[in-house]
Amino acid sequence: MQRITPLVLLAASLVSAPAFAQKTPFEGLSLGLNVGLDSGTTELGVGDNQINGLGWTSQGLGIQGAWGWPAGGTAIFSLGATLNLTDIAGGNANTTAGFAALKRRTAFSVYMEPGLKLFDRTLAYLKVGYEGASMHFDASTGSADQYIEGAGYGLGLRSFVDKHIYLQAEVKQVFYSSTNLPGQSNSFKSSGTQGLLGLGYQF
């Protein structure tokens, strides 16, 4: 799959607005700022060593944009994108082959989000999306960057605190495909859980 920049994906996921004003909450354009906590594992092959379960826990800041449509009754369907603004530590290890460190950079997602209104201003939703990132690898033999991609699955709750401002909480599982570092036989595979708390504005 040809790599597409996160900013292009973010723009492509926001569909043109209809000419009329939104009638109910959760319809139309929304923009948000999220604070996240990531925790997961990385399987990393370095030389003759297979390092399993490199734990990483890191706080990060991200932005999101989405467009929502009414889908009949209390259902809302949204398309959107997210972009991490901070790097995520991917784990460190000392092996017989030397020191190894991983860092996930410019992580982004493009997703679809079916939801149901529990109340007039509270939405429960599921999320399925494409996940991409640049994994930076540092070792005693040098450093490299490798694009990784995978899938994410999550669920969340979004609720308005006034006419335009909402709060949200979300949990998501991310699974990246296994890949080799450029020019090397060493491979790595990352997965993890992401928890988000967000503040957003519905236009």
From TrEMBL:
It comes from the Bacteria. Its main location: membrane. It is found in: Cell outer membrane. Pfam families: OMP_b-brl. Transmembrane segments: none annotated. Residues 1-21 form the signal peptide. GO terms for cellular component: cell outer membrane. Keywords: Signal. Residues 8-203 form the Outer membrane protein beta-barrel domain. This is Outer membrane protein beta-barrel domain-containing protein.
